[in-house]
Amino acid sequence: MLATSTTAVPTSADWVHEVKWDGMRVLADVHHSHACLHTRNETDASTRFPEIVTALTGQSTPADVLLDGEVVLFDEAGSPSFKKLQNRIFVRRADTAQRLAATAPVTFMVFDLLRFNDRDLTDEPWTVRRQLLETLTWNSDRITVTPTFPDGESLLEATQEQGLEGIISKRIDAPYFPR
User: Fold this and answer.
1) pLDDT in tens, 74-104
2) Which residue intervals of 64-173 are DSSP H helices?
3) In this structure, is the dihedral angle defined by the CA atoms of residues 7, 11, 12 and 15, taken in order, positive or negative?
4) Rounded to two decimals, what is the model's pTM?
5) Is the pLDDT score of 51 beyond 90?
6) Which one has a higher pLDDT value, 179 or 14?
7) Which fold is adopted by the domain 24-149?
8) Residue extents of the structural domains in the chain
9) 2-11, 31-40, 59-68, 90-99: which has the minimum mean pLDDT?
10) SS3 for 39?
């Protein structure tokens, strides 16, 4: 789902809020022991981020998921660095990507679940998708499910204080709109 800019933070209980990560949007298609990463333009990004592919295929459950998230490179201070991520975005060679994965690893910040064990979830409300997403576990710190917050105004203030990009607000009853 693509974000829409607004000047007011929704405040009703019908909304949840997440940090807007400064990274590269990716869909991760995991089927049994195979994972493929795709950009919004459907370009295969698997070679660029081997540590994410490895982490996704090492998951314990389930065997078939489609995840929506942001690939983020955190700097030494723990802040997202899109500038440093750019060195990874344009990599085409597997050996270069492996070297960079060892020296500048990325994290896949997962914020939505679109398929679960062959079940298309895009028509389900966000609450159903999120509940299923939170049941997933990985044996890697390279995959993180983004936390949600009920108070968007406080989250926005905190992200501004930390120099982060901002927040994303989601209706809890909303289905997933691909574009």
Assistant:
1) 999 999 999 999 999 999 999 999 999 999 9
2) 82-89, 94-103, 126-133, 152-161
3) positive
4) 0.92
5) yes
6) 14
7) D-amino Acid Aminotransferase; Chain A, domain 1 (3.30.470)
8) 24-149
9) 2-11
10) coil
Look up residue 135 and give its amino acid: T
Task: Please give the Cα distance from 150 to 141 (Å, whole number).
Answer: 25
Cis previous bond, 62, omega within 30: yes
Q: Are 34 and 57 within 8 A, CB to CB?
A: yes
Please state, in angstroms and rounded to a whole number, the distance separating the CA atoms of residues 178 and 132.
Answer: 19
> Phi first, then psi: what are they for 65, rounded to 5°?
-145, 155
What's phi and psi for 164, nearest 5 deg?
Answer: -85, 170
Any catalytic annotation for residue 20?
Answer: yes
Question: Could you give the CA distance from residue 71 to residue 108 in angstroms, rounded to a whole number?
Answer: 5
* φ and ψ at residue 93, rounded to 5 degrees: -90, 135
pLDDT number for residue 87: 92
Local structure of 159: helix, strand or coil: helix
Tokens of 133: 């997403």
- What residue type is assigned to position 57 of the chain? T
Q: Which of 35, 20, 32 is nearest to 67 (CA)?
A: 35
How many other C-beta atoms can be found within 10 angstroms of the C-beta atom of residue 2?
A: 8
Token reading at 144: 């993180």
State how far the Cα of 19 lies from the Cα of 33, in Å rounded to an integer: 30
Q: DSSP string covering 115-143, please?
A: EETTEE-TTS-HHHHHHHHTT-B-SSTTE
